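Friendly challenge for the regulars: who can give me the structure tokens for this chain first? No prize, just bragging rights.
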Amino acid sequence: MDFIIREASMETGDEEEEEYDEELGEAKPKPKKAARVTTDFDDSSEEESDDDDEEAARVREGFIVEDGEEDEDEELEDGTVVKGQRKRKRRRSHKDDEEDEVLDKEDFDLMMENTGEGSRDTKGEFKRLKRGREERHRQAPRGLIDIFADEELDAPGELDDDDRGYGNNRRADEFDGFIENDSSEDEDRRMGSGDERIARRRSGHGRRVDTDSLGLRDGAMNDMEEIFGLGDYEDALVLDTGVAEMEERTHELQLKDVFEPSELEERLLTDEDNAIRHRDEPERYQIARKPFKDLQVTPEQLAEEGQWIANALLSKRVIHEELEEPFIEAVKRVLRFFVVDNYEVPFVYHQRRDYLIHVTKIPRRTYIEGEPTYDLQSERLLHEKDLWFILDMDLKFRALLTRRNSLEKLYDSLRTQLKIEPDEMLEERMRTADQMELIQDLFDYVHFRYQSEVKDLALVEESGAARRRPNAGKSIFERIRAGRVYGLVRAFGITPTQFATNVRSGKKREFAEDPNLPPHEMADDFVDDTDFPVSEMAMAAAKKMLAEEIFMNPVVREAMRREWFTEAVIHINPTEKGVRMIDEQHQYYAFKYLRNQRLSAIAFEPEKFLKMLKAENDGFVEVMFELDNSGRLHKDLYEYIVSGGFSEVADAWNVERKEVVDIAMAKFGELFRGSLRDGLRTACEDAIAATVSQVFSKRLDQAPYKPKNLELGELPRVFTFSNGQGEWGDAIVGVFLDEEGRIHTNIKVNDLKDEANKNQVYEILREKRPDVIGVSGFSVQTNRLYEDLKKLVEEKELTVQDEHEDGRALCEVIFVNDEVARLYYNSARAKVDHPEFPPLARYCCALARYVQSPLLEYAALGKDIVGLTFHSAQSLLRPERLWKALETAMVDIVNLTGVLINEAVRQPRIANLLPYIAGLGPRKASHVLKIMSSCGGKIATREQFVLGDPEKRQPSILGPKVFENAASFLNIPFTKNDRESEYLDGTRVHPEAYELGRKMAADALDFDEEDVAHIVQNAGKGGIINRLIKAGTERLNELILEEYAEELEKNFNQRKRATLETIRAELQQPYEELRSKFVRLGVDEVFTMLTGETKDTLDEKMVVAAKIRRVTDRYLSARLDCGIEGNISVDEMPSAAVNTRPVNFYSVGQTIQARIESLSRKTFYCELSLRDEKIRMPNRNMVYVPQGEWDDEREEKDKARMAVTNQEQTRTVRVIKHPLFKTYNSRQAEEFLAGRARGDAVIRPSSNGPDHIAVTWKIGENIYQHIDVLELDKANEFTVGKTLRVQGKYSYSDLDELIVNHVKAMARKIDDLCNNSKFQTGSRKDAEQWLEKYCEANPKRSSYAFCLDEKKPGYFLLLFKAGLKSPLGCWPVRVIPGAYQLRDTSYPDVVTLCNGFKTMFTHMAVRSSRPGGGGHSGNSSGNNSSGGGGPMGRR
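First reply, four minutes later:
Bragging rights claimed.
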């Protein structure tokens, strides 16, 4: 897992020291030194056995690095603590070390006296001297005995780390003996240790101080050295003189020197991002094709790919036979645009539209002179979504091509270097394999059939010659193929190739030949003394080998895949959890008892299969794939492999052959179950992603709200209101945006029922004259605000101009979709945009902007768009898949509308659109804005993007290819008074078609070539277009564009019919608004927005909870949780309530269960019923499945079993008066504690009898401990015992004492260990992977870690690994009140637990190393580890 690798790499990162290169001014890696292990000891040392010495050396090499480092803090005079590190070096003489240390301390005392600080505390010194004497006189080798000498607990009287001044920089590592703590400090790296500095000074090296320049007398430096020691202050004295020199050495500061790599990656500022930013290739293509950047697609492969994609598209649609050939040609042409020309989808769709359409000329029956003799019939072959599909398939084909090239390269190497015989079957299938699965089959076949040769080839390529020892690292199948047993495989009388022939043809064309001897006698002749010494083993190996050859045969595998993918069915097996938790109202009930579900049904409900996988992942069900009518397939395969003989020998061999088929079929089932699961998941994700993209496109495809007096696309003046939650006292807030998108005013009133407030709102509406009034909010009460505003508009006759010049119409009040506003109003962006506004006013700003441009509001969200809901099952998609679907929709609509590029420099809201322009992306878009901002923030013409402006010294902004993609979507409106301005730059016409536009304009004006030349000379190239605009663009309608198109196709082989139509339309109306009209919310959409309920979650006949708001004898008023008001008439009350009067039966604030009889989604009102017979018959979630696809028998059995269980659980239970007591069973207790903190508990009845109670408390996520408590000294059956005993040894006087001293005490211990640096979150597998990765990164070091034992609540697992090659050990640690228990020994805290583990491990290692000393297992009983014993276990 990624986080495990990161953790391990973080541990190893500190080991690599660096030195500061003063000449280069940068850090350089410090040469690594081998860890030295001191083995010398005095002659008077304590004698130990030779074996112990050897074991000590071995363990020391694996566990200990004696040249460790110790962190140290330095406290300056101002009290600042500077983190430092002090290296502990083992020197040749302990005596010299002690004398140097004493001298240093004496110097320190002298300095303290000179500064008036007094003398230092010598307590630590005595301890250190004492320890030094002990080390000199003990004369014992450093071995296993003091493997953990650096204990966490200091000796009595010893200062702790803080007292020494080490501070928090020293990592509290409980396993110092296992882990080498290599750390260093900048000062140590630069200056070296004390000894190194002494040597440097004595040798005359190092920095020399000019005493004259500092005003010091001769000999002053020597005096300072004697007082302060080692010249540590030399740098400070020469700092001023070295500043200039240091500045010269300092390299140029780069971003990677300032920011963390993750931060650079987030901001798209890495070297790779910069390369993408400057390369002249569409950004999205660079990212998508990154895995295939070295792949070269040949023209033949491109043609093959085009046919491959066309076939995939044809399989999904019905096309007339006459259009198939044009369709295939269109696909190939589009693919060439993508692959060869590097055009993006929007460019192809808008600028190469002619190649997506098939035009047929239909002769006219009647001919009119001067008009065409035919009509054109156009058929659209490819839509925009088809282009995205082709692009996606191109990536898949590139992956397929890369894999196929690798296979061909491997086969060629085997043929040329190892001289294997030609494999005709393999060569033929390599040429025809067009699916990734088929290529993978061939890879598996090669690695199986030529397994030894592939290994030899690897050695040849690595070392130049194959030098592999016989049988070295050979698999079982290699040994069988190279041994005698392979003769027994051939004795079966049929080869895999012959069997494959029968399977492919579906007929028995190849027949097995029976040997003369029966199988068991034949096996005796092929016994191998080495691997298969008996005939039974030889026969088993032969069957396994033949089954594997059949399984690996590509022909057989393809046939079996076809069978599985067409005939497989899905079975759902609910787990015990699923049986218990999934009721008829549950979302998973639709497939709880599904069986024999055909795969074809998944295509109609893709979200259903993804929910199945989610339910399986949550532990509710098992999703199983089986072959429908698998018996028929087995029968056919038996027939293909058996012989036609009728003797006893033939029968015996046929039995063995059938067993071979069974073995192979089991392997096929395992393979294809996984393939089906992955394939269906991908197909379902694609289907849901396509729906998400389609839904999002519809929301984006909205022009600004259009009042009757404005043209489509013009921005309206908007006033938006909201009352938030609409509770009593909540204010009504309004915000006004003018047609420029600027906020002019906001208003706040309490209630529109008040006449003064109403007049205040009216006055501001009359003053601002909005074109539309928008309303939205967070509750049903918003509907009341909507009605009040509509009434105000009608009463005060607030009107706007309609489509007629003198006409007036009432200002429209509309509900506004607030999904974007809800994400915006509390965001950091909103606080920056409107720091002076309260959140509800920011909410109204977002609503108003949405009315003016939904596209801009969605684009401003960036990747936060994934937080919006477009499909009920979109949460089941992978985040990157969901984002890709949403980005596709954004690219389509943004390129449809274009971007005002000069406005994008000034307005961030418009700049948000730029990354979605064809050819661009977030990196290139930021690059464009940066250069434009540096050049004045404005660009006059499109050509300046690629050519720059030499006169103004403006550089080019885009490369030719990116510009070609983006040019027509970058809108630069025409400016009449600017000579440089080009009219066509403000249209969707691409610069490559400008000459066509000018030619059309000249023909429309009847200009000849001389006229055109004169106008161009005087007014520039744009002069002709300008003349046309002045004269009137309606003249373009007189042109016969078909003749232009035919001439272009005939002379230049260019299809331009659609392009010419686009030019005419754009000249007449530049950048016409092509989006759909603003969509007003429907009744159901408003209902869902204000209540959060859909028809699936709230509908008639459903039973819901309601809170009574008013009680009378005739009716009850209630409100549902979603805010809907409800009414219960006296006829819908139970008879008991009517007989005793409702006012005596119900009370205000009471929560009741009611059934919805009628529901008005428009008025947010419902009629409810409280009658018992109706509540017992709620609206059930009907499941419609074909006959035979639901396991009714299993459902009935489970219902009967659960009824008995529920009856037992609902029997009369005792009640205990305690705040933590609940009448729960164990499952209910766990569900209750699921959202609570560690240590929270529930006291509940016990199933062990009336003298027991149970306590369930939460240990961790999905980990709960159930404690059985025995009650003693009970007064009667219903009272709590005076003595409460747990586990037979812990006694408490009452429940409070039990909770505090038992449960809470254990919870504190678990908190302590979980907060320790040695604790690993996640499962045991995660912790084991962390240890493995750590040891791989640190092969000579060892480590340990704790993790929670999910199988035994209340236990930790202590996992340890003594080096890379040592097996993984595991000991259980039990948590008891106030302590930890490791191997029957209790430890009061984590530190002593770790020390105890080290001591215990050391003693066991010593004991296991002695002859006859026995051993120990690295694993405790009941906690098996993959490694077995530790490094000290039995060999």
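The first helix runs from residue 2 to 13. Residues 1-108, 110-208, 227-244, 1413-1435 have pLDDT under 50 and may be disordered. Your move, everyone else.
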